[in-house]
Structures are given as structure tokens and as C-alpha cells.
Design brief:
CATH topology: Cytochrome Bc1 Complex, Chain D, domain 2
Shape: globular
CATH superfamily: Cytochrome c-like domain
Strand content: under 5%
Low-confidence stretches: 117-122
Structural class: mainly alpha
Number of helices: 5
Length: 122
């Protein structure tokens, strides 16, 4: 295998692992309250993702706003004030900004409506 193909192979493997790590971060933490398709104790991922996508269609804007808001949730800056009234304000979590960026990226890139709650969500 040539050096060029080897480097491409390593980059490909790294990108797969990064997505798996982001999936684990999401499914190990967020899914506790945010089920994929059902709103039980918090808005479903499908529901809040739709709201965020309508406000921020560009990936960078979506990820930036979501990760910053989750880092410091405030009623005044919420895109979903009705959900805050219904479920309460999201608590402050002990995640660093880089982790929240990874999770927000995963949410942006994943079509939860097609997954059918196959994982830990339902």
C-alpha cells in the first residue's frame, strides 16, 4: 500500500472512530432525558433538532449555538421556551465545550427519525 493510500486509510478510520465516540457521548448522556422520537421528560431529539435546524441551517451555526446554550442554559436564550415551561430549564451539565461541540455535531449529522429508536432511546 502506498504512503498516500495508507494516510487516507488512517484518516478514514479516524473519522469512523470520531463518529462512534460522539455516538457514545450522546447515547451515554443525552438520551437519558431526550429520547429520539418521544417527548417524555424533555423534548425529543427529532423535535429540538427541527427547531434548531429552522433557526440555523448551516452546520457551524447549529453546532455553535447548541453547544454554547447547553454549556450555559438560560430561559432567555432558549429557542424552545414552550418546552422550558413544560419540562423546566435544562440543568447545567458538567461537560466541557469541546465535548458539547462533538455531541452537537453528532446531533446535526444524524437522522434520528430514520433510526426508529433502535438504541437506548426507547
Amino acid at each position: 500500500m502506498s504512503k498516500k493510500y495508507f494516510i487516507l486509510f488512517l484518516l478514514f478510520i479516524y473519522s469512523l472512530q470520531a463518529n462512534e465516540i460522539n455516538s457514545l457521548l450522546f447515547n451515554g448522556n443525552c438520551i437519558t432525558c431526550h429520547k429520539e422520537t418521544k417527548s417524555i421528560s424533555a423534548p425529543s431529539v427529532v423535535e429540538f433538532k427541527k427547531v434548531y435546524l429552522s433557526a440555523f441551517s448551516k452546520k457551524e451555526d447549529f453546532v455553535d449555538y447548541m453547544s454554547e446554550w447547553v454549556l450555559n442554559p438560560k430561559k432567555e436564550t432558549s429557542l424552545m421556551r414552550d418546552a422550558v415551561k413544560k419540562y423546566g430549564l435544562m440543568p447545567h451539565l458538567c461537560f466541557d465545550e469541546e465535548t458539547l461541540i462533538d455531541i452537537s455535531t453528532y446531533i446535526y449529522e444524524t437522522d434520528f427519525s430514520k433510526r426508529g429508536g433502535r438504541y437506548w432511546s426507547e
